[in-house]
Specification:
The complex is a heterodimer of chains A (about 120) and B (about 575). Helix content of chain A is about 45%, strand content about 0%. Chain A has about 120 residues and is mostly helical. Among the domains of chain A are: about 40 residues; about 40 residues. The radius of gyration of chain A is 24 Å and the shape is flat. Chain B is an all-alpha fold and about 575 residues long. Chain B folds into three domains: about 230 residues, no CATH class; about 250 residues, no CATH class; about 80 residues, no CATH class. Chain B is elongated, with a radius of gyration of 31 Å. The termini of chain B are far apart. The relative contact order of chain B is 0.08. The chains are: A mainly alpha (about 120), B mainly alpha (about 575).
Chain lengths: ~120, ~575
Amino acid sequence: MNDKKIVDDAENLPWLGRKLLWLDKKKNVDRIVYGLYFACAILFAADFMYKKYVLVAVESIPGFYGLYGFFMAIVLVLCAKVMRVFLMRPEDYYAPNDVESEDYPEDQLERLDNNG
Amino acid sequence: MADGFPVAFLFFAGAALLCILPKGNARALLLLAIPVIAGYIIWLLPEGNLWSTSIFELNLELMRVDRLSRIFALVFALAAFLGNLYAWHMRDMVQQVGTLLYAGSAIGAVFAGDLVTLFLYWEGTAIASVFLIWARRTEGAYHTGMRYLIVQIGSGVLLLAGTVLLWRETGSLVFESMTLGSLATWLIFIAFGIKCAFPLLHNWLQDAYPAATITGTVILSAFTTKLAVYALARGFAGTELLIYIGAVMALFPIFYAVIENDLRRVLVYSLNNQLGFMVVGIGVGTELALNGTVTHAFVHILYKALLLMSIGAVMFRTGTAKCSELGGLYKTMPLTMIFCVVGAASISAFPLFSGFVSKSLILSASVDEGYYIVWAMLLFASAGALLYSGIKIPYFAFFAQDSGLRPKEAPWNMLLAMGIAAFLSIAIGVYPAPLYAMLPYELDYVLYTTPHVVTQLQLLFFSALAFTVLQRTGIYPQGLRSINLDTDWTYRRLLPKIISAVGKPAARLWDAIVQFSLRRINNIISGLYRTHGPEGPIAKAWPTGSMVLWIAILLAATLLVSFIDLM
């Protein structure tokens, strides 16, 4: 992992990459996050705008799907974090070279000699 | 008869033809042509049993075509086409032949009308597919391939045992709907369950698929597990047990997916979770639920391949698929990023993407039949799918913190394959009617209703909100170079430990017994030698005694010969 901030020369990037460079700025990322907050608020409000067709009783709670999704997502991540304490092991736990990759990408690009 | 020529043989003939073609684009072209021709043939096939043969007085049905088998065969042909396009650059004949045999076996298996044919193709998929793992030619891949093969062949052996027992019980080999009860049906059920990666039987999947080659993983993701889904839908639709198996299956892999570092393994955990949805649908067993399962299998093959292709492209260009090593690739691989996001939106079931058209059917079916707890579990799994697949995959590969890697965009063939899969994922999401029309049963279902869209968007946006909050507060688990223990620990660690714990004393005991017996035998031999040997007391009378014996034998022989002569 490189800690230094790399400043990209926009000329070298593909066209689409240049267009997406605005994501590099933290301010713009914040904007996206605010957009998400706003969208959540709108969706919560939208629950009052239409007639609900309730099949399961809990569905009548305003914003049930949103709240359920939010809390379950948090439960999921917290449980997973606890699992990590018990289940995480170093990469060579089973065997050395167990999860090592071959030499990429040169090897894969010019793999003509592997052709039987 | 010619109409119903087994499509699988087309793939096998292609594999043979491949060997005599010059290497290079001619082979790659053949690899593309065969799935296209096969798809065309499958599309035109009439329904019915089209090709029968008999071996050892067993009637084999090689081509049972109906709506269920046809849609699976079609999507298999499509997956083979996309996978081969993605692998256009690849010049490794082992993988090319393996892919053709594998896809052919999978298609052969869905058309199998009897259990013996199913068994043959079932093992065919196992044997052909392992070469996609071994082709990576690393030490880890070799051992993983061995484990994979043992599990897959094990499933086949169980299927064969079940088939034989069922044949003795009923005298019929026809592969049709069964009910659990006898040993035979249980064996077949477990054989299907292994390939379908039921909980506790699942770990071969997460072990093997991420160990395969870049193109191999894409191919692998389509066939084996969906073949098992087909087999369950054909044989065990409406088995209530499957609902609970499926619900557990949809849930537990998502916890692993959150903490897994290898993005390809994250995707395979998510594959397992998506299979859970399909298994629930089979368990519910109503027409709506089975339609949901088939739709889900169809769209899942496309978006899972798409996701694996995009991460494969990243791996192709950077040499790694680990969360801990990646990040910030969106600048130089923007197209791959966009295709990945389309796949992520599809698996998360955003409205207008393909996952929405299929998950909705299964969720509705489970509510209709009153399985509210299962419905809640599936809803949780859907929220989870967004978290670990929908956001984690594109976020950690293409955004997150800058890894400093500036790889080139993926090659044209990979982009084209991803582009087609992405296009289909959106097209099915926007206009699912043509897919719905191909389903096994009539479908009367209004997908895009206001409550439906609003509730789904709520679920997804609020889950995304949770991710944002957790990520910004630093609670979300970051990628660490690590692996996580799963059930493979039992046979990779526990079992060897038990064997060595029991084995060492057992070996020592065996040694002691052998030593003791050898000593006894030696004693007997030397004792005999002392008495009967050349120097022994018995030997003193030996030459005379044996002479008398031989004369007696000669006399007897002469008598016998003269007696026979007289007769």
